[in-house]
Amino acid sequence: MSAVTVYAEAQAQLKDAEARLQACEAPGQPPNAFTPAIQHHVSALLGALLTASSELNALARREMTTVKREKVQARAAKLRDEQAQLRSRYDALRSRYDEALAQQQRHALLGSGAGGQQNDIDRRWNAQAPGANGQQNGNPEATILMMDGLLHEHNVLQNTGDRLDDYIGMGRQALEELYEQRSMLKGTQRRLLDIANSLGLSTTLIRYIERRSRQDQWFFWGGVVACLFGFYLIVHFIG
User: Fold this and answer.
1) Which first-to-last residue range defines the signal peptide (predicted)?
2) Fewest 10 Å CB contacts: which of 71, 123, 235, 239?
3) What separation in angstroms does the CA of 203 have from each of 206, 212, 214?
């Protein structure tokens, strides 16, 4: 794939991520507008942009002229900077979403506790907590502590998923670079074989010329001797 194609695809992905983030950042948009589906999609786009930047750097090393190489490297650096800016905006929206979700769940749990009603999470907490036989039932503080722990686990798992996506992108990038190096080594091997074959033909040609030169020398000296012998016969019999 050429550097122009990679950069064009990266620009399309950049515009898609920019549009989704901008829609969630618009005034009046609630924090929950940045849904998990949008988060996953934008995270995948950011990983693809990072991979495209690495691909451009790899393609820049294969450019023959300095001007083209510097141009591709500049595009790769620009794409990496834009990806970093989008990542910062993504993290900000993600933090806002997590905070709003935690606050909403706290209010819901406090409301259900005040009304004397318990949801499934309350029942699980009361069943597992020490002194569950009447000590923790309907206790909002215990429910908040339990929800804080669950939210922390949720954030850790989601951050781990994002890091795994980054690692997968880095692994794909390394694999693609290995494939490119393999192709370059194959091309170098073919060129070396062509040069070796050309050198072999040149050596054979030189040997043929040297052999032909020796034959021409024998013909020349033979002709000289024949001419001298003919002159001798002419002078002897006619003169």
Assistant:
1) none
2) 239
3) 5, 14, 17
